[in-house]
Amino acid sequence: MMETKQPYSIRLFGIELSAGLLALLFLAPFYFVIVNSLKTLGEIIVDAASLPVTYHFANYAKVWSIIEFPKVLWNSFLITGLSVAGIVMLSSMTAYQLVRRPTWFNNVLFVLFISSMIIPFQSVMLQLVRVTSLLELRGNLIGIVVCYLGFGIALSMFLFHGFIKNVPLEIEEAAVVDGCSPYGVFWKIVFPLLRPIMVTVMILNSLWIWNDYLLPVLIIGSNRELTTIPLAITKFFGQYTKQWDLALAGLTLGVTPIIAFFLLLQKHIIEGITAGSVKG
């Protein structure tokens, strides 16, 4: 049967126009950041919306050396990678246990996990600093990763919990009949099926951890060996001067890897949405 092509209407034109304007609205910050990163400070102050009179690519070279960009880039990669890997593994295992063993204790534990998401981070900042100081977790890699695990597992577990409910139990029963151990069932059967929601969890947590400033400044502090990109960019903001030209160049360098990561996984996000729409 041939599909009838829907005629182009004023309503459809209005939807497309609205979508285009919305896209421009979201892309506007990227325009201001990239354009102003190629200007001098004087040009930015005079007119931040115009194109550069002369393109100053030297801003990027200065930022590269001032903040030691390869070093802070590696620190951001290391902290984000270890934290996201830990969040994915721990939250997926926790969600699987809570779904497949719905005891009263597990139900209470699930409610506690969900309840922790409504607690504002600012309300636990002082206690967090005290506890991490007592446990000697401040100023080191283990401390910042442990903190990210603590704050990131609740939401990730909630997302995995909803997805695992749609994984057919018959697949796991068949694996058990074939002699697969409980750990083998999860890692060999269930975990690969979680790829769509896993990609979503990875992107959400990567965006949060990569761009986070408050938690690193509390835990890493003055340890220059673990300085991340957001912490390094604060060098361009002093009490009396703000070097917007260099700060925006550093910001452009900092967001490029995470944007590339998002675009790389975009296909898997679309696959996940499609797969989730046909699950029973």
From TrEMBL:
Example of a GO cellular component annotation carried by this entry: plasma membrane
PROSITE patterns in the cross-refs: ABC_TM1
Alphabetical list of InterPro entries matching this protein: MetI-like (IPR000515), MetI-like_sf (IPR035906)
Major localization class: membrane
Entry keywords, A to Z: Cell membrane, Membrane, Transmembrane, Transmembrane helix, Transport
SUPFAM superfamilies registered for this protein in UniProt: MetI-like
GO biological-process terms attached to the record: transmembrane transport
Gene3D superfamilies xref list: MetI-like (1.10.3720.10)
Membrane association type: Multi-pass membrane protein
Localization of this protein: Cell membrane
Family per similarity comment: Belongs to the binding-protein-dependent transport system permease family.
The protein, known as: Sugar ABC transporter permease
Organism in which the protein naturally occurs: Xylanibacillus composti
